[in-house]
Amino acid sequence: MLLPVDDHFPPLDLSWLDPEPTACPSLSPVEQRRLRRKISNRESARRCRMRKQRHLGELRAESSRLRDENRELASRVRTLAQQTLLLRRANGRLLAESSALRLRLTELRRLVLLRQLLTHGGFGCLGYEQELASLIA
After folding, report:
1. Is 9 in a helix, a strand, or coil?
2. Which residues are in the BZIP domain (predicted)?
3. Predicted confidence (pLDDT) per residue in 13-50, tens digit
4. DSSP assignment, residue 11?
């Protein structure tokens, strides 16, 4: 006697048992029920073990997938960290260059203003003192 079960596992061979415990007249009804229950419990335990094995296989597959994903994400994080470092260095250089250029521009504006004052005879102009003060500052 073969009992049908999942598609993943072969059916359990119970041919060694009497297919009908009630067919054996030497067993009392209580013993027959106990025997049927014993058979049922064994089959139920077997199905439970099969489900557990299937679940364990699914968990292993998911674990492997998550490990692969974790490696990929760690690699991306390292790449992004390197890019961030390069960008911060470039940004620092650009900020320093910007500051130097700003100072140079201020100096050039002062020189232009001073040249204008000297070439246009700004000594008699109104506001000359303010322009001279801005050059000194």
Report:
1. coil
2. 31-94
3. 555 555 555 556 688 999 999 999 999 999 999 999 99
4. P
Q: How far apart are CA 64 and CA 67, in angstroms?
A: 5
CB neighbour list of residue 6: distance below 8 Å, 6 or more residues apart: 47, 50
End-to-end CA distance of the chain: 107
CA nearest neighbour of 112 among 131, 133, 137, 129: 131
* Number of residues written out for the chain: 137
Q: pTM for this structure?
A: 0.52
Scored b (16 or more CB within 10 A) or e, 47-80 reads eeeeeeeeeeeeeeeeeeeeeeeeeeeeeeeeee
Coil, strand or helix at 7: coil
DSSP run (H or E) holding 12: strand 12-13
- Euclidean distance between CA atoms 98 and 92, whole angstroms: 10
The C-alpha R_g of the chain, in whole angstroms, comes to 46
